[in-house]
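Why do we care about 3D structure at all? Because function follows from shape, and shape follows, mostly, from sequence. That is the central idea of this module. The next example makes it concrete: a single protein chain, its amino acid sequence, and then its structure expressed as C-alpha cells.
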Amino acid sequence: MAGSYITWPTGYEALVGRAGLKPGESILSNGAAGGVGIVAVQLAKALGATVIAAAGSQSKLDICKIYGGADYTVNYTEKDWQKQVLRIMSGKGVDVVYDPVGRIAESLKCIAFKGRALVIGFATGEIEKLPLNIVLLKNVSVMGHTGACIPPRNHLAFSWYRRNCWGYSLLVALNLQYVTRSSP
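And the structure:
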C-alpha cells in the first residue's frame, strides 16, 4: 500500500502517456505479480486492453489472474514462452510490452509490428542489450519511463487513481473480494 503513490502513477504515465495504450489493444506485462507489474495489469484491464501477464511461477501467475484480472498468463521461465504469447494473439504479437524486470530483448520475439516496448526497470539486475535488428524489422518503438521523474502534468494520474483505484488497491492489499471499477 505504501508504494501505491509511486506504482499507480508510474503505470498510468507509462501506459497512457508514453505507450498511448488504447481500448482493444494488447499488452504483455512482465514481472506481472510484482508491485509495478500488477498495477500495469490492473490499469491495462481498466483501459480496455487484452492483458497477458508474465511471471516466473504458477503461484505468481495465479496472483495475476485473481488480483490483477489478467486475461491470459505465461510463465517466462518455460522454453519458448514467446510462442505461447504468439498463439494467444493468433500470431500477431502484442501491441505493448511493459517490462520492469529486464526482459525486453526476449519480449521482442512476441511484439507486434509497430509495437511499443516500455522499459520500466531492471529488477533482474542486468541492463539489457537489445537486438536492434528486430526493432528495425518490426518497426518497434522502445521507450523508457521511470516513476522517479513523473512530470507535473501527471496530477491527472493521481486524481484518476484516487477516484477509481484507491478502494480497489486496498481490497487487493487486504486479500479480500473486490469489484472491478469502470474504466476512466
